[in-house]
Amino acid sequence: MRSVRARAAIGATLVVAVALVAAGLAVLLVLRDNLIGQADLQAEVAAREVAGQLALDTRYEDLDLDDAEDHPVQVTDEEGRVVFVSKGLQAVSGTRSPGVSPVPSASLGATASPDDDDDDDAGDDGGRPARGEVSSDDPDLSDGTATVDGKHADYRFAAVEATTSAGITLTVHAGAPLAPEQEAVDTVRGAMLTGLPVLLAVVAGVTWLVTRRALRPVEGIRREMAAITASEDLARRVPEPGSRDEIAALARTTNETLTVLEASVERQRRFVADASHELRSPIASLRTQLEVAEAHPELLDLPGAVADTVRLQALAADLLLLARLDAGEKPGAARLEVGALVREEVSQRAGDRIPVTVEVAEDAAYEVSGSRGQVARVVGNLLDNAQRHAEGLVAVSVAADGSGVRVEVRDDGAGVPEDERERIFERFVRLDDARSRDDGGAGLGLAIARDVAARHRGTLTVHRAPEGGAAFRLWLPGAE
User: Fold this and answer.
1) Is 139 exposed, middle or buried (0-12, 13-18, 19+ CB in 10 A)?
2) Euclidean distance between the first and final Cα of the chain, in Å?
3) Last residue of a domain, one of 185, 217, 238
4) Which of 114, 188, 369, 446 is 20 to 30 A (C-alpha) from 207?
5) What pTM does this model have?
6) Tens digits of per-residue pLDDT, 281-290?
């Protein structure tokens, strides 16, 4: 199912259905238990009432059983023989005996008439006759059925023992009908079964409408993104809802992503245009020299052709490195000793215009992780920049800085204006008063240096040197 609204509606409906079914079953069980408890109480009251009369030696035919139809009664003796049943009781189950026909001999001998005045039955307490008693123990409760006047129904029976004055123990079984309980449970169950589908339909409909309303901004975002994709116009933005929920956050993040993407594409276009311009000059110059040499060999400027070729080669190498960095190429994980790397890089620059002063402690180890070639390229680019602008001093120092290593290259030149200290790290940027195409590079050295530093989780910044020129500080995290 592809629709989020449909999945949400079905999920909510299923959850509510499970909850309602569980709650309904719990309600039915509690209701049934309460109603059965009431039936048990009614049966016990009826049984104790009859037992109390038997304990007073009331004859069976004189027992007060006004509600015999609702509370059928069966009396058994100690041997389980039926000695009395209520009027109209035709069949019974769930009691001590299923019989409904009293035993004549037992019924005659079960009780004594309260009118018998035999002096021999007098007790020792002033001649008053002995009285029976009713058991105070909790009655035995059981489920059963009974047929009264041809009507068969379910009952709860309570069994209470009564002892007559003659010492005869009788058990009274009195029933309470379960029809009210069954009717109530059936009524509640029917109401639940009828209302459950309606309630689930309402839940599904409300969930569908609420989800549809909540996802309406998402549909607007989708349509706008589709339009941006079709038109390739990255200047467009998706609509941002006025709410402060997750969808609004999604819209803001999408617009931020579009802004970054637009800037990246614009930077890439500018990079391609600048690279084409920079490549055009040395290629045109080299072609001109070769064409002149072809027509007039004696006019061949061989050193100039070599210089243009070297410059073209260096520019191509810089462009390839930037392309790899833009593609997300990760640096190596080799351990580098920065002090030794700086000394080696300086030792290879014997032909520099200004000798380079190296300030590195001999007994210290400054190790970082990364690509040796790329870190050396950064140091070389910073030294090239310092040689281009220095008056008479170029110095490089290596020192520990917090959890990393700091490499600082400084000169005594004119320095970098404060408002230009970020701009000089952009690609193909030259400061008008400090650089030219003739005595400088293509404006990629510092951009490459900062990109390499960032790929190594480091930083590259420019400050004012104590000598008055520029101080470029490369910081790299120490090796783990």
Assistant:
1) buried
2) 49
3) 185
4) 188
5) 0.50
6) 778 878 888 8
